[in-house]
Specification:
- By secondary structure, the protein is α+β, with helices and mostly antiparallel strands.
- It contains 2 helices and 3 strands.
- The protein has a domain of 73 residues: Nucleoid-associated protein YbaB-like domain (Ybab, Chain: A, 2-Layer Sandwich).
- Helix content is 50%, strand content 17%.
- The protein has a 3-stranded antiparallel beta sheet with strand order 1-2-3.
- The radius of gyration is 20 Å and the shape is rod-shaped.
């Protein structure tokens, strides 16, 4: 059974690994799409919006409401993909840690 110093070292190592993983999430990019590709949103796995691409065919004033709806849908798609990428990355980090069943990280 590990002593207190070993447990503290393991906790510090786990915290360092989690911090590295959190920092790496900003470099992972996902793309949310709506309207069959007419609106695209690029975001980091942390949810930071990097770019918005709107097809020129949607830029007519009569299409304003549709463009707004498609942008919102693309952002939600990007956010969903960012969450999935973040969860996958965090599972890689925490998979080797000796955590009790049902324990979630980060705290």
């Amino acid at each position: 059974m590990p002593n207190l110093d070993d447990i503290m070292k393991m906790a510090q190592d786990a915290q360092a690994e989690l911090q590295k993983a959190q920092n790496a999430l900003d470099s992972i990019e996902v793309e949310g799409v709506s309207g069959g590709g007419l609106v695209k949103i690029r975001a980091s796995a942390k949810g930071r919006i990097i770019a918005v691409d709107i097809d020129e065919s949607l830029l007519a004033p009569s299409e304003k409401q549709m463009v707004e709806d498609l942008v919102a849908a693309a952002i939600n798609d990007a956010r969903s993909k960012a969450d999935a990428a973040a969860n996958q990355e965090m599972q890689k980090v925490t998979s080797g840690l000796p955590l009790p069943p049902g324990f979630k990280m980060p705290f």
